[in-house]
Structure formats: structure tokens, C-alpha cells
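dumping this here before i forget
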Amino acid sequence: MPEAARVVLLREEGLGFIETEEPKNTRGLISNVLNLEKHSHFWNLRIFTIQLMQNRQHSIEIRLIILGLFIQKIEQLNLRELELELPVIMQDYLSRLDNQEFIESLKNIEGNLKFQINLARDLIRYRISDGITSKKYGVILNQLVEGLELDEDKEEFEIEKTILKYRDSFESFYEPFIKKQQYMLENYIFNYVFKNLFPNDYNSLFESYMMLIIHFNLIKLHLIGMAAKQKHLNEEMVIECVQQ
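structure:
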């Protein structure tokens, strides 16, 4: 739904979700069903995630790191401890957004860029072997491959060269654009959280978190590759990338 994606991503004031219960025969109702008796903290965790991601004091990456630390913390608790301590822990991690010393310490946490690039190469192999049915995604994929020099046909893949191209594109095109339009990726995350029943869409909370991070980093990687190829980044490129 191209127009729906455009409306969601370009909503600068952000997205909000209202908890409500629809009749089972509602047309267009999302088919995923969650047992709320088994996942009694689903809505609390969901609301916490949205509150954290709506706080624009810091970059999306910093907010996602805090979300990961929070999930690691609560996964160490048994059900009884979680019942008693969850409200305090949620407030603690939200208040950390105002702790500058804590935020500065997070800025030293660097994502594993080699892992992300190798993941992208695996994705390219999978997409090519499975057959690329979308011409638009084929164009995006070619821009990623050419922009970051991820060509699988080369005899020797020089990952350090790709990392230099990644960093150059990040600093020259991606970062300046996202600083002004970070709401586009925020809205992508909100939509992901909503449609995937995050954080109870996988076997564990941390597995759910890791899948969110993988999806986010793949979108980011594609955008940086596209920007490296086209020597700029704009709203239309982000919308086109997310749609695929």
C-alpha cells in the first residue's frame, strides 16, 4: 500500500495507538492473536516502548539501545519479581533519558558494522537465489550493492573498503537527513511494533527485540547504500525503501 506507507512515514507529529477491542468479525482485523493471560504485561511493555521511542531528546539508536538494556533487565526477573518491580523499572529507564552521563556512556557503544554488512551480503544471496519479483526492490538492491561495493562477483570482497564507503555515506548524506527527518524512522518503528505484536511476537522478549533491531539496521543499511550511489538522501528514497 504505497499511499498508506507515505502517510505513516511522513507524519511528523508521530503516531499513537489506542488500546481497544474489536469484534472478531471486523473486516481487515489483524489476524495475529495474543493470549493476554499468558502475556499479562503485554500492554505495559508496549506502552513503555512507544513512550521511549517518542522521546526525541536523543537519536533513535540511543533509544533502541535503552530499550535493549530494559528488556535484558526484565528478562532476568521471575514472574513474581516482574509483577512487583516492572512499574519502577519502567520509570527508571525512562528517567535515564535525562541522565546525560548515562547517555554519553551509550554513545561509546558501536554497532558491529562488519556483522551488519555480512548480514546484508547474506540477504543479497538469499534474495537473488529466491528470485527478485519486485523490480523496484531490484533497483534498490543494485544501488546498495554498487553504492557500498558489495558485489558478490568480485574474487575478493574487501570489507574494510565497504566500511569506509558506509561511513562516508553515513556522515555525508544519512546523518544530516535523519537529524531533520528522524520521525520517518520513528514511524517505521511504531508501525513495526503495532503490526508485529511486539514484544511478544517471538519466543522471548529479547528475540523480539533483536528482530526489531535487524529490521531497523537493514532499512538503515539500504538507505546508506542508496545514498552512497545517488549522492543524496530524501523523503522519497526512504518511502521507496520501506515499501519494499
